[in-house]
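Hey L., structure's done. Input below.
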Amino acid sequence: MQGEVKLSCRNLWKVYGTDPKKFFNTAQSGQDPAALATKMRAEWHMPAAINVAFDVHVGETFVIMGLSGSGKSTVVRCLSRLVDAEHGQVLLDGQDLLAKTSRELIDIRRHKMGMVFQNFGLLPHLSVIENIAFPLKLQGLPAAEQRARAAHVVELVGLSGRENSYPRQLSGGQQQRVGIARSLAVEPELWFLDEPFSALDPLIRRQMQDEFLRIQRVLKKSIVFITHDFMEALRIADRMAIMRDGRVVQIGTPEELILHPADDYVAQFTGEVPRIKILRAAQCAAEMASRPESLPQIQHDTRIEGLLPLLAANPLGLDVVNAGGDYLGTLTAASLIATLAKAEADRAPEAAHG
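Output:
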């Protein structure tokens, strides 16, 4: 993904133990990260985030995923400085958050960051509108402006008519919408979401993912989203990082991770995803020397899964074009089957190895 960088995480380490800072003096600085992590464990320290590095672009949804204990939630807490990292940089618009004072950090959180966690954290004695307006009250905004901004995000998350309800009167999905609205009320430039839907039932979770995608299409926030569910990541991610034992194993688009996993760990994460869910039209098209005129045109980045009805209705194929309208190839049933067959053949050695 190209574009302006909103957040940069550079060589970030979080280590638990009696004296973690001792590992980051000048003498240690040139060590290989894996060797340094091994040394830490040998001295009864636990590295929870090991030399983590990535960029988040303006308007991008960047997903961090991994199994429990992989370090993904630790990283997002370091990014927001809910916990302090021992080493590295977290640059927001070029300014290092790890160097900010407590007072400066409070101001940044109140005005530039939004955070949503698995635990909704709603105040039970406050109504929906009061919960949403609470961070605006902390900012010291006039009551009328608090109410107006809270009312706007109530509508944005689809809770109109429930403004005066209390958390106990809401379903789990509605409570999570209040949490999302509260984090959006401050109009954050950077939005952190740590497994926000994992406590919800599958149907409600799917609905909340749809709601999240709708909101992001409108607001185009810079987002760091934590999940352990690859299918959820597949739906919402522009790019994603997979973590294991505190390290980032691979960064890429969902398609890149599925089609070109860096190792067996990533392949196991992605192995159950049907290829038809991630392949796009250009990847399945074939150039044709002669083809019928006036075939329907489709954009190169359209996912195959959504094209099946159109392909069935046009047995001669669909012309695939880029954003400028240039012909890239023709998608036919035969070219789709050939692509899927190759993808399954490529996956077979991975499965056998696993």
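The chain has two domains: 5-112+188-270, 278-353. The first helix runs from residue 33 to 42.

-- N.
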